[in-house]
Write a structure and sequence with these properties.
Two copies of one chain form a homodimer. Chain A is an alpha/beta fold. The N and C termini of chain A lie far apart (48 Å). In chain A, helix 1 (2-27) runs parallel beside helix 4 (99-106) and helix 2 (43-54) packs across helix 8. Helix content of chain A is 39%, strand content 19%. Chain A has a seven-stranded parallel β-sheet with strand order 3-2-4-1-5-6-7, with helices on both faces. Chain A has a single domain (2-216), classed as Rossmann fold, CATH 3.40.50. The first copy, chain A, has eight helices and seven strands. Chain A binds chain B through residues 2-4, 6-7, 10, 38-41, 66-69, 71, 92, 94-95, 122-127, 143, 145-147, 149-150, 152-156, 168, 170-171, 174-175, and chain B through 2-4, 6-7, 10, 38-41, 66-69, 71, 92, 94-95, 122-127, 143, 145-147, 149-150, 152-156, 168, 170-171, 174-175.
Chain lengths: 220, 220
Amino acid sequence: MRKIEIVQGILDANEATAAGNRAVFDQHRCLAANIMSAPGAGKTSFILRTIERLSPHIRIGVIEGDVVSTVDAEKVGDIVSAVVQINTKGMPESCALVADMIHAALKRLPLDNLDLVLIENVGNLLCPAEFDLGEHLKVVITSTPEGDDKPLKYPVIFAQADVVVINKSDLLPYVDFDIDKFTRAVRNLNPRAVFFPLSCKTGSGVDEWVAWLRSQQPVK
Amino acid sequence: MRKIEIVQGILDANEATAAGNRAVFDQHRCLAANIMSAPGAGKTSFILRTIERLSPHIRIGVIEGDVVSTVDAEKVGDIVSAVVQINTKGMPESCALVADMIHAALKRLPLDNLDLVLIENVGNLLCPAEFDLGEHLKVVITSTPEGDDKPLKYPVIFAQADVVVINKSDLLPYVDFDIDKFTRAVRNLNPRAVFFPLSCKTGSGVDEWVAWLRSQQPVK
């Protein structure tokens, strides 16, 4: 019982910190997106493609979450200056970003000069669903080689998604992935999610996502 | 502090239960393999291919771990009779199997009549690395579309692996995955792992894995 009480306490504290983060984003009229997926579904490539299309009209900051390593932050740092790396190893929740980590990262971002903050969560379809970060948009990326049954197996994260990206559409001819079956499975959990099938490799479909993201941007 | 002490207590208790599970497997001269990967890397297909090649000479039981759903247990149940489903939702650790869950599952398996138990862990490259289940072999599956940088980002699980399976080798012509780079990255963490590149879709490379697995089987 003691452990369960403590876990509940942690989640309540996280909600409060997340609300504070959201207030900071709103005060700066800065849109924040929390990007989540399984390992290797293409979160970093998706962020790189998004920056390529929106910069410099939209000024973008990135928060990179990883258990260890700075591989992704280095890739992103090549094309955008405002990047903060968070390594979760040794932290009480190492399998996901939590609101406290974002709170600390926000102090290191020039929010007055940013329109959009992209947060790359730890590669995991389970733990990140537990923690609100104070973002405006939850973006869940699935990739076609993972198979179309993921919503059945990881329903919580798909139920929360504002946006579902179906990445690696260029591999559709070579894998067993039925987009209609996948979309129906997400719809059963979540009637409001917006879908973007795309390929970060070829760039196909990225324009549609970027146009939609621009439509969500608050007027500065 | 209190939370960290409790977490340490849970891990110590898990070690003790895992040792008990291992003793039960040994007593029945039953080999146990813990199969771990990211979501969608092909754990279930790998188990199905392994059963196809080894049955009925090797008598196989399967423990299926999922947060929710019985999708995988149903697929496996079509070709093997001894299947136990574990759903981790609502359990204190829902993002991985823990030794207690295996202890309970072993009571429902006919161990006297089994040579091999395949344990399909929850799809996750982080949490399952924390919990010994009492298995003899830790098998980590990576799939080529995930990219070759996964050992840098999820080093703990690759450092522990006895076997590293590189699945979806049929997709190599279409994805950026350098087998040498991947193998070197694992070798840096783990000099003793055995590698099996294979495709559960085409069956290529499965014979090598199955021959090796047979060589690990205790004499009954």
